[in-house]
Each structure stands twice: as C-alpha cells, then as structure tokens.
Amino acid sequence: MTHPDPLRQNVALDALNTLRLPARAAWFAAIDSVDTLRAVLDDARIQGLPRLVLGGGSNLVLAGDFPGLVLQVAFHGRSRVQEDADAFYVRVGGGENWHDFVRWTLEMGWPGLENLSLIPGTAGAAPVQNIGAYGIEVCEHFYSLRAYDLETGKTVGFDKADCAFAYRDSFFKQQGAGRYLIAAVTFRLPKRWTPITGYADVARQLAAQGIAVPTPLQVSDAVIAIRRAKLPDPAEIGNAGSFFKNPVVDAAEYARLAALHPGLPHYPQADGREKLAAGWLIEQAGWKGRRLGPVGCFERQALVLVNHGGATGADVRATSNAVRADVRARFGVELEPEPVFVGGPLP
Ligand code: EPU
C-alpha cells in the first residue's frame, strides 16, 4: 500500500496562528506518528532547510514567510496511564487541544488543572512556555514528557527537572529552542485536592455565584467566565494572549517605582524580588485600547495585543516596540514579549 505524501508545499499559515498573521510555509507536514516524522525528516526535498514546530500557534508572531519546513504537531490521544495512593497520572498527545483536555480531566474526576481552563493552544505547547493563570503554573502538575529530537532523530524523555521551568519559560524556550517536537505530556494530578481561589478575580467570581466551597468544575467555570469577560477570543479577534511578561524587578527598583507611583500592583517573589503588572504599566502609559495601525492594546486588558484586521508581523513588531518604548520612558522598566518571533526578515 502506498501512503499519501505527507509533505505539502507553499502552505498558508494564516489560520494556524492565533494572531491571524499572513505567512506561508515553503514546506508543511502534519505529524501524527513517529513513522510520519521519520519519513518527512528523511525526505531529500527538505534537507538543510530550517524547521519550525507548530502547536496551536497561540504563542507565535509570524514575521514573514517561513522558508523551511513547518511541522504541525498532530499526536492525539489521552488516557490515564497510572495511579498510586496519592495521584492519577494522565497522558495527553501533544496535538490535543489544551482546554478540551483540561475539561476532560475534570469530568473524569481528576482535578488540578482547573485554573488553567480556556488557555488557547495545544497540550504539547503548555510546558514550552509553562502556561499559568489564576495562581498556578502548569509545571506544578507536570510529571514528564516525550519528545523527538529533530537533530538526532531519537526519542527523549524529560522529567520535571530536565524542563528547567520558570515563569513563562522552560528549557524548550532556551537551550532546547527549536530542537524538539513534544509528542506526549504526562501530568500528575493529586488525589487530595484543595481549590486555589486566592486570586482576587476568582474569589470574586465564586462569591458572586454564591459558591463557598467550589468543586473543581465550578472553579473551571469561574475561570472561564473571567477569561471570557476580560480576554479577547482568538476565534473572534486575532491575539496571542498576554503579549508581554510581567516584569520582575529587585527590591530597590521596586522601592523607587512604588515611591513614584502609588497603586502600582506588585506580587512579592520567593527570592525577594517583586513582579509588576505589565498591564497596569501599559495602561498608565496610555496604551489601553490604543492602536498603531492595525495592531493595538485590547480595551479590557492592555497586556494583550490584538490584530484589528489585516496586520502583518511587522505591524505587531511596530506596536510592540512603541509600547515598550513608552513604558521604558515613563517607568524605566523593560518589557519582554512572551511570544516567540519567527519567520522572514522584518523591516
Ligand atoms: N491591570 C491594569 N490594566 C490593564 C490590565 C491589568 O491596571 O489593562 C492591572 C489589574 O487591575 C491588576 C493587575 O494589573 O491589578 C494584574 O492584572 P490581571 O489580574 O488581569 O493579570 P495580568 O498580570 O495582566 C497574568 C497573566 C495572564 C493570566 C492572568 C491571570 C502574564 C504575562 N499574564 O495577567 O496570562 O491569565 O495573570 O492569572 O503573566 C497569558 O500569559 O497569555 C495570560 C493571559
């Protein structure tokens, strides 16, 4: 039996990135098995070309056409692989939709990921930038993952320490950037569960619904309601979630800023530093709801850049740079973009 050619040429990526930026891949393949991956990587037509691993496209700024091979992660499946006295171990294919996976775990009675409901993207991309929201980060329930090393062609297992998780960061955004295709992730979901409702928005939402002792699904529902109220839906308006990381500054820098700007929201870190709310800094710099060309800051959450229609990667870069310059001028604070910029040259 002959298999259809998995390699496609000159493929539009517009619908495969949540900022809805126009870009084309010289070569493209959806990877749903190791055999497909091996066949694609051995193909004479793509030797020596750059490669890009694509998940849900929700943490990506496509700066132009991609001159190489785009590998779309299409590994599927989800199952409970193990259980011990303290936890359930649940494995999910890297190409599965993150939110659908979270809801499935909750419906199966395996809590833990509820605060991370409705985050766009795939399960395989979740550990790459260590997604986080409403008081938890995915690394807290991460157990292990299996990835394909695109350089050696071998399968590699990673445990939690190997991943070097940090705030919106991991090994896969640092030394391992671009090298691995994450095929499956295993989470450890503890049997003894307590809701994480310390985040003001979550507490307020549950109180408004008259819920004193929430179930995991009720926490998920509350998070969904908050996100729907505050954040733009990528299905309706192009965006990549928070566009900047919340900057972390040392104690002296925080003291300087707090004296100048009463009301500056801040979150003490374990190491004595302070995390600042980038959304607040951006709003104070006058950018909430403002746009430069087709790209602007969302009117209900200044930290999110939105594509009002027809934007290119260069437009995103221009607005990002303008916001950063204004925040730098007003506060002396440097903002770092959260998404990864890839693709052709920028003007
Ligand atoms: N704020 C403003 N103006 C704004 C936005 C925020 O003044 O336009 C203030 C808020 O009033 C609040 C503070 O800034 O005092 C923090 O705002 P919020 O609670 O909305 O959270 P955030 O720090 O802006 C972070 C994550 C989000 C995550 C939320 C909830 C980052 C970069 N962003 O946003 O993650 O959903 O907390 O936990 O850490 C994402 O990474 O894509 C993302 C959406």
Secondary structure layout:
Layout: E1 8-12, E2 24-31, H1 34-42, E3 51-54, E4 60-62, E5 66-73, E6 78-83, E7 87-93, H2 98-107, E8 132-133, E9 136-137, E10 142-149, E11 155-159, H3 160-163, E12 180-190, H4 200-208, H5 216-230, E13 238-242, E14 248-249, H6 251-260, E15 266-268, E16 274-276, H7 278-284, E17 291-292, E18 295-297, E19 304-307, H8 313-331, E20 340-342
Parallel strand pairs: 2-5, 3-5, 4-20
Antiparallel strand pairs: 1-2, 6-7, 7-12, 8-9, 10-11, 10-12, 13-19, 14-16, 15-16, 17-18, 18-19
Bound molecules: uridine-diphosphate-2(N-acetylglucosaminyl) butyric acid.
Q: How many strands, which pairing sense, and closed or not: the largest β-sheet?
A: 5 strands, antiparallel
Total number of helices: 8
Instruction: Supply the helix-strand structural class.
Output: alpha+beta
Number of strands: 20
Distinct compounds present: uridine-diphosphate-2(N-acetylglucosaminyl) butyric acid
> Which of globular, elongated, flat, extended, rod-shaped describes the shape?
globular
What's the helix-strand series?
EEHEEEEEHEEEEHEHHEEHEEHEEEHE
Radius of gyration, Cα only, in angstroms? 21 Å
N→C terminal distance? 48 Å
Give the strand line-up of the largest sheet: 6-7-12-10-11
Mean pLDDT score, rounded? 96
Strand content: 25-35%
Low-pLDDT residue spans: none
Helix proportion range: 10-25%
Can you tell me about this structure?
The relative contact order is 0.13. The radius of gyration is 21 Å and the shape is globular. Helix 4 crosses helix 5. The model has no long low-confidence stretch (mean pLDDT 96). The chain has helices spanning 34-42, 98-107, 160-163, 200-208, 216-230, 251-260, 278-284, 313-331; strands spanning 8-12, 24-31, 51-54, 60-62, 66-73, 78-83, 87-93, 132-133, 136-137, 142-149, 155-159, 180-190, 238-242, 248-249, 266-268, 274-276, 291-292, 295-297, 304-307, 340-342. It is of the alpha+beta class and 347 residues long. The chain has a 5-stranded antiparallel sheet with strand order 6-7-12-10-11. Strands 1-2-5-3 form a 4-stranded mixed sheet, with helices on one face. Strands 13-19-18-17 form a 4-stranded antiparallel sheet, covered by helices on one side. It starts with 7 loop residues before the first strand and ends in a 5-residue tail after the last strand. A hairpin with a 5-residue loop joins strand 15 and strand 16 (274-276). The longest helix has 19 residues, at 313-331.
